[in-house]
Structure formats: C-alpha cells, structure tokens
Task: structure prediction
Amino acid sequence: MIKNENIRNLVKKYNENKLSHVFLIETDNKEFAFRDIKEFVKILNCQENIFQEDCSKCNLCHLIETESLPTFKVIMPDGQAIKKGQMETLKHQFSTVPYLSKYNIYMIQDAEKFNASSANMMLKFIEEPEKNIIGFLITDNRENVIHTIKSRCEIVNAYYGQKNIVLSSAIEALVEDYLYNIEVEKEKSIVYNKDVLDSKLEREEMILFFKAILKIYLQLFQEEIIPEKLISLKNLSKEQVFKRISLVAECLERLNYNVNILLLLDDFVLRLED
Result:
C-alpha cells in the first residue's frame, strides 16, 4: 500500500492520462519514498490494470520488488556523486521500446548528487522525453538539486514524519494519557484539552508533545511495539493510522506559526472523530 497521499494521487493522474514524464520527490524519509514509488511502479506496469498487493497473476511485481526487471532501473550515487557513465548506461538501456512491461522506468536516489557532467547528460535525457519513459528523482532537499534539472520536473512532496524522535519521559507519559483519553475512552475529548494546557506547556514543548503523538502513530503504522495502555489502537486500519499521521504532521506545521494552541488541540480532536 502506498503510504504517502501525494504519491497515491499520482495513481489518479495516471488513470486520467495526466502523468508527467519525470518527477522530483522531496521527502523526509527516502526509504519510505522508495517503497511507495516501487508500489506505484507496480501499478504502472500491471498488464491487466487490476494491481493488488501480493498479486500472483504474473511475475512483474516480484521482478520490480527485487529490482530484477530490465525495464526498471534504480540508480544510486557512485561514491559521492551520480556520474556521467551511469546516465549514459541508462540512456542506452532505455533506447528501445520496453518489451516486458508498459514503461521503461528509472529511479534516481540522492538527486542532489548529480555532478556537472552527469547533470548535462540527464538534461539531454529528459528534454526530449519518450512517451514510454517515466523517471523519479528522490531528494531530501529540492534546493540542493541543480536548477536546470529541478525546473524540468514535476515536484511531489512526500512527508512521512520524523523517524527518530528523542523525548522526555514526562512528555511521553502525558501523551500516553492524552491518547488514551481521546482515542480509547473517548469521554473527555475537547474538555480534556484544557487539562493539557493546565500542564503549562510552552510552544516548544507543544511541538515535542505532537512529535510524541507522531512517534506512537508511526510505531503503530510500522507494526512496532506501542504502550500497553494504547494496545486497542491496533484495531485501527492502516488508512485510519495514516490519516492520523497526516493530521499530526499538519499540526506540527501549524505550530511553526502563531496559532492558538487550544484551538489547535480542539481541531485535532474534532478531526480525529470525523
């Protein structure tokens, strides 16, 4: 299942025949983005347009998963840079019409690591796009990608939330109680938000508060161990957990501005109940 909503939206564009030929994926988690794009590549190449997870109707998904499909190429930096020779090889390999799948698809990790010669070769490759070639460039900062390449890509933001969050035990305990009340008990809801504010949390501490919430939802999504008190949250579907991750990420973004914290908490609870 594709985790990121913006990458999932590419499926809709594909179905509407509105897909670009090259995408720049800016992400805070290259591993997650890589996995999501692989799932999208499986959908793109499904021969019968009926792709399902763990589909066994053909061998294409397995070949994509193991990066063994000749028409699906993953390029990593060679040492400290993506080199001209790598791009020349890719161009040569994709000079023919795909024969095992619908598209020739390439994925370039660490797109900020093009050097001058490989960037020029990349430009030649994407300035005259073939209709059966689709590319994905992954970076953790689009500003570090050479402008001439970036300007020719459709940019997709793929945010997943921070993977490694170090938090105080006091914040973690408060969050555990908070989620128990709003997710498990569902009795106090908005009223309980005032109790949180009574804890005299400053704005920076509220950021840590939401990061601790995010940490639990990410653990839940990745099927890792969560606090025993919240074990019933495992009954949530993947879609419900992903919705919560996206909602917390939005709250963290809003905390960068002069938002009313009580209103933010109330909005968070109300949208959880939707």
Q: What stands out?
A: The first strand starts at residue 22 and ends at 27. Residues 5-158 form a domain with the Rossmann fold fold (CATH 3.40.50.300).
